[in-house]
Here is the input.
Amino acid sequence: MINQFKTLNPINLLLLFAYTFFMRIAILANPPERLNFEFLEPYTKLLIQIPIGNDFSTISNILLAGILIFIQALIFNRIVNNHALLLKPGFLPALLYITTASLFEPFLVLSPTLICNFLLIMIMDKLLKIGKSPNAIMIMFDVGIFIALGTLIYFPFVVMLLLIWLSLLLYRSFNWREWVSGLIGFLSIIFFLAIFYYWNDNLGMFYKIWLPLKNKFPSNFKIQYNDYLVLVPVAVMMVLAMIQLRENFFRSFISTRKAFQMLFFMFLIAILSFYTKPAFKLYHFLLCVPPGAVLLAYYFSNATKRWFYESLFLILVVAIQVFLFV
Here is the structure.
């Protein structure tokens, strides 16, 4: 299966579409009785009313989520190929994106993080361009706007602001205009939210929106390890990818090295930002899918022992299906 997607064969588009819904067989066969979809944060709903959410039936929710994942996978695949992050262009990034976006049941339904991943993929594309641009001011401004829009949908997305400055450290010499432009882009959207609260004599509530940033990082975690055994093959692939990346690190183009360092920071921020959400939900980690899928695609793109990597991928797919059905 991996070999099939190493090429840009158009038939792979149909195979990817079928594969997207194959990975949803378990939840389609036994759908939950009710699914709640909160598209915006409560502080945004006061400003913007979008008449969607609980109007979807369970099946419609699952099918629409699958279509969105498929669209994201194609956009993601184009970006990875355009920036030459793998040995050769193909559909491996899309395949791994769909696979990792199917790991857990909360990933298979509509969620704020699913919508935010459109923004995260666009941010990834913008940040991969800054090393090739003579001036990154407008790129950083756009990234700031994307992060602000994501924050209106899902508050932990605000922590992605750190990624702006980490990326500038990686790619460019210090230019205070570039460092400030991302923040200005972010504040240009948040400014309208502040004006709304001001008009309603409610600036105190606007201040409270940002209080979760002061939350202490939890020291104790209650984890049902049986629920996360599906991550074992993913962890093995990640380790193999890191080994592969280390072996090729100094033989790669400088832009490729910096790209994977930036993606590592994105992955880390996506994981750690959960602390800003008091009512933590597993779908938060859907934000880890774009950077994680690049790393997995890198491993399969460079792997040489076909019997091994095909077996490893098959084990992952079977494990996902088993744990979704159980």
